[in-house]
Fold each of these.
Amino acid sequence: MIIVREAKLSDIDIVYDLIIAIAKHHNQEQYVTTSKDELISSAFANPPSFGVLLAEFNGEVAGYCSYTWNYSIWLGSNYMNIDDVFVWEKFRGKQIGELLMLKAKEVCLSHGANRIKWEVEKNNNGAIKFYERLGANIDIKGVFRWDIA
């Protein structure tokens, strides 16, 4: 049985482990500078800086989706920005990623927003096909990053 739910404070260790796992998966662990304390103070602030959805497969955490809220001046409304979607390898192929995305859609709609955005590596064909199967469209724009401090 698969359950997708919002993360609780008691989940912070597994959330941190999942963040490290996706960073390792992308060979980018050296870029993770957050800490469990930072995650706690950001995710459980009022208002929270970000949210996390956890997928459980038969009671074991199988993956997660993290998100933030942004405002689009063109839309004139808020939208959800998904930061990470990750499923532990042993749970892949069990529709967990799809259920995480569908729960993100539900959360987005419950907040009165009607758009979700996220990034995907342009050579990650499996992920692109997966997202297109959900009905998402790829936006061909470059993403800049400017580290100023």
Note: Residues 96 and 146 are 33 Å apart (CA to CA).
Amino acid sequence: MPMRVDIVTQEGPLFSEEAADMVVLPGTDGQMGIRPRHAALLTTLAFGELIVRKGQAEESFIVYGGVAEVRPDRVIVLADTAESTYAIDVEAAHQARENAERIMREGVPPDKSAIVMQELRRATLQEDLARKVMSRANAAIRIRTIED
């Protein structure tokens, strides 16, 4: 029995899948894997990677906070902000990280500190996940059998 997965941001629906096999969520208490028939759950989300798996296919997103409601047949993610990891502009993320680091070194007014730290965290996460997704595309997946 597959499950429906919906990812919604403040801008509107981002992703919907009718028959997912698994969802990996970046919960504030750590990563959690959700499969069909999971117990009902409401959790807050941290900054991190959200993965939706269906058979051998996989979709990957960066989530910047929010909440997820898990039901036995459905996962609804209400993200503060989210984007596909496949759409990351690595150069722009690198530039944003360098700019935020430069501003932090030069000194940040107290009223701007949280904004700069948020931008640094976001850009670093984008760079890290872009590298991770690119390495996955080149990696062979080994299917383990009982005999292994």
Note: The chain is about 30% helix and 45% strand.
Amino acid sequence: MGSLLIAIIYLIFVSLGLPDSLLGSAWPVMQHTFNVPSSYAGYVSMTVALMTIISALLSPMLIKRLHTKYIVIISIALTILGLFGFSFSESYVMLLLFSVPYGLGAGAVDAAVNHYVANHYSGSVMNFLHCFYGLGAVISPIIMGEALKVAHWNQGYQWTAYVQAGILAVCIFSLPLWKKNQASEAENKEETAGIRESLKVPGVVLTLIAFFAYCSGEATCFLWTASYFKGLELGNTDAQIAVTGSLIFGGLMLGRIIAGFITNKLGDKKLIRIGIIFELAGIILVLLSKSSFILSCVGYVVIGTGMGPVYPAIQHMAPENFGKKYSAAVIGMQMAAAYTGSTFMPVVFGQIQEAVGITVLPFYVLLFAVLNIVFIEWAYKKCKISK
């Protein structure tokens, strides 16, 4: 029963990843459909992420009042509504409208499931969990690529919504499996601290800044990688360019698979350092290979591979670093900080690339990689966990 519950939790993270990479993959075509500037992708992404921030900040309260399994069901249903809404949108304003349920469905389930796994399972399970997020995020650009070949971008959103609906059905049928850790989860709820109290714990604010930096770089890659390859003008088709939106996600999945096997041996802190070194190597490769489609693709996969263990490792350390009393609030705030970066920084990049060109993308990602490692190392010292 325990192994089956873990499988369901992994499936939940597949569903969490599915919606995240669609906009970046489809936007080069969607932009022409709605007759708007390329930077307008940022406003849709910003609306989705803003709703996710609200959802994540509400997650400590929701975790205290609802069992994780019910947060999961409600959240997946909201993302299905958002996906179908995008598929039927006939104007740019409709995209913004359906971005609301699209985003609300992500934040609370992300925080709730991360909190559940951080308190009940090992770092290996946490990395494999986020690996399955990457699997979902890799699948949807492939779905979109096929839709662009045989139909239209609308069908890409519809087909993804059908996959989400299937996952929702599985989650509903698996509700009895969650009894496994129900007693210990109820005990944790009794001593859960609030956001204001948790902000005073040493190192918490620094990890929030590190999360902001990490997701700023990650989300910018999610949204703009396909546009980067379009801007290189190497003669690739729209369908080929759409699939490049899955490169970062494929790298994330690879990085988390590897981390899942070694995290219990190396520990979260070393994994973060190794991951950022790989990310920097990938950025350098992209900068050196602008005339080669294949090498640029490899570079983005390496960037994603390096990013892979960073997010789950920081979250898995929360109960140990800050205590179970604060972990729900800390993870909720980490999610909010992460999505704040996801909300605003891709939009900022949209304005920058319109002014100076899309090829500045690797430099922008480099900035946030450096900020990420600086603030996470500072947090280690504050938490007194440096060895």
Note: The two ends are 38 Å apart (CA to CA).
